[in-house]
């Protein structure tokens, strides 16, 4: 591993990842991933199955050796992290099935004791077990055997185990998989509490865009081995998909027009000024899900040298030129950039 070539991160930086690369055999899974996370920041790592999220987290936790790149986790290279450094981290893995015969409180109490030597003037370790049990919503199950817990309760226990040492940085790999909406909301409150009151940095992976939007200060989208987006949910929706959909009814037909770039106001103004007899006008901004899908789609179809790239571009061109009758009847020129899905919706709108 090379020495750090740039200045070390400031004390407010919990995670500093530069040009991280990971190769399994001949397969490059991470191709130069760079990002930082500040103390107290909640960062969500999104990406399709197999994008390399778990690999990234495992490298940052020190469980997996990277192929190349520079990584600093709480000021330490995880490849050389000692016990004292590890005590400052919390880890919640995807699945963990063990200690079934232990009772919830006994297990947490047992694990908590390992953190006592790592208590500092700034951070008192471990977490008081009874308080922690309340915080994660397991007070009623405190005396229950772990094997009797439901899936959601079990996941809460996983989280409790991950934070019992009052970590400064928590890695959560798909923490709410299997949660019901109530448990999910309680978990979100817990993450906010960790970040806001304990100044804990949280790096979580999720497939739930709604969750990423609600929880994360910043969203990283990993695809094709690279970070293809990095920003708040609002920034991603604003900067990456400027697309909006204008829907209206005229002459008994539903219509959809995708405004790919800029402000839909001008289109709407022309629409209303036209003699189309417009009713039920609705302007819908791209959601985070739209943004995410278009990002991943873009990253997957536009890889240089990929056999699919030409076909994908041809598809895109087809979509751009695939004007429907309704487009021609519309109030102005097509802003272009529609996807196949948009086109399908348009056709559906025209025919309905
Ligand atoms: N130990 C390993 N040996 C070889 N290949 C691996 C190994 N671990 C992961 N991979 C491969 O690396 C890629 C990234 O896997 P990873 O588990 O990091 O993705 P992920 O983004 O977490 O996926 P998911 O959303 O499905 O959990 C996948 O193609 C996977 O098959």
Automatic annotation (TrEMBL):
Coiled coil: none annotated. Signal peptide: none annotated. GO terms for molecular function: ATP binding; ATP hydrolysis activity. GO terms for biological process: response to antibiotic. Residues 15-249 form the ABC transporter domain. It is a peripheral membrane protein. GO terms for cellular component: plasma membrane. Keywords: Antibiotic resistance, ATP-binding, Nucleotide-binding, Transport. Residues 305-317 have a biased composition (Low complexity). This is ABC-2 type transport system ATP-binding protein.
């Amino acid at each position: 591993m090379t020495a750090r070539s740039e200045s070390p991160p400031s004390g407010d930086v919990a995670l500093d990842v530069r040009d991280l690369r990971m190769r399994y055999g001949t397969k490059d899974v991470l191709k130069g991933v760079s990002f930082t996370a500040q103390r107290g920041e909640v960062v969500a790592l999104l990406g399709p199955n197999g994008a390399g999220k778990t690999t990234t987290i495992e490298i940052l936790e020190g469980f997996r050796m990277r192929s190349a790149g520079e990584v600093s986790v709480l000021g330490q290279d995880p490849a050389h992290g000692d016990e004292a450094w590890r005590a400052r981290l919390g880890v919640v893995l995807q699945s963990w099935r063990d200690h079934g015969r232990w009772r919830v409180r006994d297990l947490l109490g047992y694990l908590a004791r390992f953190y006592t030597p790592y208590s500092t003037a700034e951070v008192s370790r471990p977490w008081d077990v009874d308080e922690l049990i309340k915080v994660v919503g397991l007070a009623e199950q405190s005396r229950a055997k772990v094997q009797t817990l439901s899936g959601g309760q079990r996941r809460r226990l996983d989280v409790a185990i991950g934070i019992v040492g009052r970590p400064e940085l928590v890695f959560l790999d798909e923490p709410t998989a299997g949660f019901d909406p109530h448990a999910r909301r309680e978990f979100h409150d817990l993450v906010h509490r960790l970040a806001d009151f304990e100044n804990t940095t949280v790096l979580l992976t999720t497939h739930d865009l709604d969750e990423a939007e609600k929880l994360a200060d910043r969203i990283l989208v990993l695809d094709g081995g690279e970070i293809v987006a990095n920003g708040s949910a609002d920034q991603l929706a604003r900067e990456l998909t400027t697309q909006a959909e204008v829907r209206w009814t005229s002459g008994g037909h539903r219509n959809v027009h995708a405004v790919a770039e800029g402000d839909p106001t001008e289109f709407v103004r022309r629409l209303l000024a036209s003699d189309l007899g417009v009713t039920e006008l609705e302007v819908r901004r791209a959601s985070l899900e739209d943004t995410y899908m278009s990002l991943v789609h873009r990253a997957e179809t536009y890889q240089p040298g990929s056999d699919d790239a030409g076909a994908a571009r041809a598809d895109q061109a087809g979509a751009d030129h695939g004007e429907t009758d309704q487009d021609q009847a519309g109030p102005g020129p097509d802003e272009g950039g529609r996807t196949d899905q948009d086109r399908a919706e348009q056709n559906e709108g025209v025919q309905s």
